[in-house]
């Protein structure tokens, strides 16, 4: 009888040890994402955007914030992609769009409008919820001193465009057009070579993930000075 109880205790202990605090945090964060999918707005927007709202809930959750502090930036970056893939049931195009939308790090865009500023909102989150999500995005993805939180949206958006249009030149053109438009029409905007670099990494990850569905996005990151 004592041996039976000992075996039971060992099994329970092994189950508890098998799941790290980081894994447990991800499980809770995933519940936040899944609960957001039933939003009524899902009836009015494409699936990628609908899942993008779920991804915002995932990233914003206290659980993902706890996970992000325990791992390296590239590992948190990978988990954002894997969660979007899980929600999209393996559809890479939808997952890329959801991940990009979930990672938007601008609350609004300050446009130049006849000599004044016109703020265009990019999120329906209130300010506190936006700041909470922003604070959970990996900050130094490229391992430099610069804040790289905006590079996630560039990476995933470029991968999405590649999955939709296929042609590399068109993806590059879209990236340069966005940067040029920011330089011309956004207050304080400029053409950022590091954004274009992240775009290029995202394009190459789409190619890699097409050949290897289990590829990690961090594997496509190249030094971005």
Relative helix content: 55-70%
Biggest sheet, in brief? 2 strands, antiparallel
Order of strands across the widest beta sheet? 1-2
String of helices and strands: HHHHHHEEHHHH
Number of strands: 2
* Contiguous uncertain segments of 5+ residues: 1-19
The averaged pLDDT comes out at 83
Task: Report on the architecture of this protein.
65% of the residues lie in helices and 5% in strands. It is built from 10 helices and 2 strands. It has helices at residues 2-18, 21-36, 47-60, 62-70, 73-87, 92-102, 127-136, 149-165, 168-185, 193-211, and strands at residues 108-113, 116-121. The protein has a two-stranded antiparallel sheet with strand order 1-2. Strand 1 (108-113) and strand 2 (116-121) form a beta hairpin. The radius of gyration is 20 Å and the shape is globular. The model is unreliable at 1-19 (pLDDT under 50).
Topology:
Elements: H1 2-18, H2 21-36, H3 47-60, H4 62-70, H5 73-87, H6 92-102, E1 108-113, E2 116-121, H7 127-136, H8 149-165, H9 168-185, H10 193-211
What is this entry, summarized?
The protein is built from ten helices and two strands. It has helices at 2-18, 21-36, 47-60, 62-70, 73-87, 92-102, 127-136, 149-165, 168-185, 193-211, and strands at 108-113, 116-121. The protein starts with a helix and ends in a 14-residue tail after the last helix.
What labels describe this entry?
225 residues; 65% helix; disordered N terminus; mainly alpha; globular
């Amino acid at each position: 009888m004592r041996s039976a109880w000992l075996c039971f205790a060992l099994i329970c202990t092994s189950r508890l040890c098998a799941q790290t605090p980081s894994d447990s945090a991800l499980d809770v964060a995933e519940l936040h994402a899944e609960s957001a999918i039933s939003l009524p707005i899902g009836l009015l927007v494409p699936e990628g955007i609908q899942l993008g709202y779920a991804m915002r809930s995932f990233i914003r959750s206290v659980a993902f914030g706890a996970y992000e502090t325990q791992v390296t930036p590239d590992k948190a970056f990978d988990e954002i992609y894997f969660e979007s893939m899980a929600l999209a049931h393996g559809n890479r195009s939808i997952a890329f769009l959801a991940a990009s939308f979930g990672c938007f790090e601008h609350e609004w865009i300050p446009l130049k409008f006849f000599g004044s500023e016109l703020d265009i909102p990019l999120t329906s989150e209130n300010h506190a919820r936006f700041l909470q999500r922003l604070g959970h995005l990996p900050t130094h993805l490229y391992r430099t001193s610069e804040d790289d939180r905006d590079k996630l949206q560039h990476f995933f958006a470029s991968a999405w465009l590649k999955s939709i249009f296929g042609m590399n030149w068109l993806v590059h053109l879209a990236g340069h057009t966005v940067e040029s438009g920011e330089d011309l029409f956004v207050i304080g905007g400029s053409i950022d070579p590091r954004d274009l670099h992240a775009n290029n990494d995202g394009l190459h990850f789409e190619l890699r993930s097409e050949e290897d569905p289990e590829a990690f996005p961090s594997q496509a990151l190249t030094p971005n000075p």
